[in-house]
């Protein structure tokens, strides 16, 4: 038992955003020491990697969860494995297993996870393939959806550090969405139930991070998996794990997501309180909408054009997989791109300005690009 626990934590103690198929397999196997868990192979990805299905519990509420359909969105998977570990041979686990039945696809896109890409090995976005079913991963999902017949779906994702919230300077540390079921974005019963559950989650999380939780764009697209599930009448919640300060490993965000799972599953075990439809919708719409207005770093008052004409430089990290860890490569946003309003970090780099003063102005752009790359990548 001790060996299993130790192995689990070694397997999950990442200081990197990278979470590959091998990493999760150790963690998944370690859960099955508890008879409430069982692990199966559902099928294979484009490159022949196994896609795992993990089942938990035998209750009447059936919940289907899938993570890493975008291979480079690892935070919700990490949080899920941490959360599930807490249920192993515990009173909480026994209690939840009586009420709930979870079907978990922890890594729907193992090829993308291995290569740290959003897309699958055929360069298809699986979240635009729900109706087309052009990919083996999409067919596996559809088969599970049809046979398991969930009463609730959790669509688990991670979002880029470019998102802030409308009406404030806050970043979107987490975002949620009750996806639309049709182009009119009407409040169907399934959508209303997703909104009600999102309200429970966000109320609990606001105790930790205040008004840093957003509402994702609800434009309908039937080829998006969450929209498809809602259209079939199944309440679906989109989770988006975002950037929180300088925590680029996103372990703090993972802890928040873990709490979100705990709140949600506890809620599902309780007797439902009747709440007015209008109250649910109003409370949900109270969450500020996500907005693209953030970047990773703003260097204040740099001299990119001329002396006495200083300008802020906007820097965004590119995430690259290098020898099993993620390297954040600092890139200056080009002059034509939309200027972000806020950043996760601000610097006044006097060293850069003194270097620039020594150079001819035509040499500034390549110098700045190289300087930023060397100094701010990590
Ligand atoms: Zn995603």
Write the layout of secondary structure elements.
Layout: H1 2-12, H2 21-31, E1 37-44, E2 50-56, E3 61-67, H3 75-87, H4 91-99, E4 100-105, H5 110-115, H6 136-148, E5 152-158, E6 163-165, E7 174-177, H7 189-209, E8 213-215, H8 225-231, E9 236-241, H9 251-269, H10 277-285, E10 290-292, E11 294-295, E12 297-306, E13 309-322, E14 325-332, E15 342-343, E16 346-347, H11 350-357, H12 364-376
Parallel strand pairs: 3-4, 3-5, 5-9, 7-8, 11-15, 12-16
Antiparallel strand pairs: 1-2, 2-4, 6-10, 7-9, 12-13, 13-14
Zinc ion binds next to loops.
Structure characterization notes:
The chain is 37% helix and 24% strand. With 378 residues, the protein is α/β, with parallel strands linked by helices. It folds into 2 domains: 2-292, Aminopeptidase, CATH 3.40.630; 294-376, no CATH class. The strands form 4 sheets. It has an 8-stranded mixed beta sheet with strand order 1-2-4-3-5-9-7-8, with helices on both faces. β13 and β14 (325-332) form a beta hairpin. The structure holds zinc ion.
Average pLDDT, rounded to a whole number, is 93
SSE pattern: HHEEEHHEHHEEEHEHEHHEEEEEEEHH
The top-level CATH class of the largest domain is Alpha Beta
CATH architecture of the largest domain: 3-Layer(aba) Sandwich
Percent range of helical residues: 25-40%
Bound molecules: zinc ion
Q: What is the C-alpha radius of gyration, as a whole number of Å?
A: 22 Å
* Percentage of β-strand residues: 15-25%
- CATH topology name of the largest domain, in short, is Aminopeptidase
Low-confidence sequence ranges: 1-11
CATH superfamily of the largest domain: Zn peptidases
Query: Distance between the terminal alpha carbons, to the nearest Å?
Result: 37 Å
**Strand-pairing-aware structural class:** alpha/beta
> Strands of the largest sheet, in order across it?
1-2-4-3-5-9-7-8
The biggest beta sheet, please? Answer: 8 strands, mixed
Q: Name the overall outline.
A: globular
> Total number of helical segments?
12
- Count of individual domains: 2
Oligomeric state of the chains in view: single chain
């Amino acid at each position: 038992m001790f060996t299993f626990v130790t192995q689990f934590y070694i397997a999950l103690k990442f200081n990197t955003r990278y979470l590959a198929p091998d990493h999760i397999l150790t963690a998944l196997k370690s859960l099955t020491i508890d008879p409430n868990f069982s692990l199966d192979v559902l099928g294979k990805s484009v490159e022949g990697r196994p896609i795992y299905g993990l089942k938990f519990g035998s209750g009447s509420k059936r919940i289907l969860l899938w993570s890493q359909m975008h291979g480079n969105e690892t935070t919700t998977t990490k949080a899920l494995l941490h959360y599930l570990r807490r249920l192993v041979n515990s009173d909480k686990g026994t209690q939840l297993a009586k009420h709930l039945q979870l079907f978990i696809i922890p890594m729907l896109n193992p090829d993308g996870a291995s290569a740290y890409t959003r897309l699958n090995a055929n360069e298809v976005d699986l979240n635009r393939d729900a109706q087309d079913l052009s990919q083996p991963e999409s067919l596996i999902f559809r088969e599970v959806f049809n046979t398991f017949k969930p009463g609730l779906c959790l669509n688990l994702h991670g979002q880029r550090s470019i998102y802030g919230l409308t009406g404030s300077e806050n970043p979107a540390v987490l975002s949620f969405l009750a996806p639309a079921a049709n182009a009119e974005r009407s409040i169907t019963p399934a959508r209303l139930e997703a909104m009600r559950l999102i309200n429970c989650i966000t109320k609990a999380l606001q105790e930790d991070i205040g008004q840093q939780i957003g509402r994702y764009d609800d434009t309908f697209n039937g080829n998006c998996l969450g929209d498809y599930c809602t259209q079939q009448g199944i309440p679906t919640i989109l989770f988006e794990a975002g950037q929180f300060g300088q925590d680029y490993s996103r372990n703090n965000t993972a802890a928040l997501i873990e709490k979100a799972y705990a709140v949600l599953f506890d809620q599902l075990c309780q007797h439902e309180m009747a709440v007015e439809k209008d109250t649910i919708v109003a409370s949900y719409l109270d969450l500020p909408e996500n907005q693209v207005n953030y970047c990773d770093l703003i260097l204040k008052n740099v001299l990119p054009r001329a002396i006495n004409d200083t300008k802020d430089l906007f820097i965004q990290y590119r995430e690259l997989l290098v020898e099993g860890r993620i390297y954040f490569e600092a890139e200056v946003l080009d002059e034509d791109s939309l200027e972000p309003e806020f950043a996760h970090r601000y610097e006044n780099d006097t060293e850069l300005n003194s270097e620039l003063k020594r150079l001819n102005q035509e040499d500034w752009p390549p110098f700045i690009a190289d300087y930023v790359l060397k100094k701010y990548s990590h």
